[in-house]
Amino acid sequence: MKKTLVLGASDNPNRYAYRAVHQLKNHGHEVVPVGIRKGQVAGLDIHTDRPQAGDVDTVTLYVGPQNQPGWYDYILDLNPKRIIFNPGTENPELEELAQQRGIRTEEACTLVMLSIGQY
What is the SS3 assignment for 69-89? Predict the structure, then answer.
C-alpha cells in the first residue's frame, strides 16, 4: 500500500483532510498526518513538526496555495512519487518545482480517487 503524508491534517470531522486520513487508513494505506495543531485523527497523532517520513509515495495537500511556500522544501525533500493537489490547493509554482524533480503531480480529489479505486 502507498505511504501517504496528509499535509493539512485536522482533528475536525468537518474537514476534508480528516475524512481523507480515515479513508486512506480504511483502504490500508500507511498515513502520516501533518498539521499546524496537535490532535489525533483516526487514532494517529497529528505531527506539528516536519517528520522525516521515509519512502513517502504520495503527499496529498489540504493546505491552500497561499500557505504552501513555507512547506515547499519539506515536501520536495521527502521526494514523493507524486503530489495530489486537492480542490482549492492547486499551485502552478509548486507543481513546476515538483515536476523539475521528477515528482508526478495531479490535480484531483483524494476522497474521489479512493472511492473509485483510482488511488
Answer: HHHHHHHHHCCCCEEEECCCC
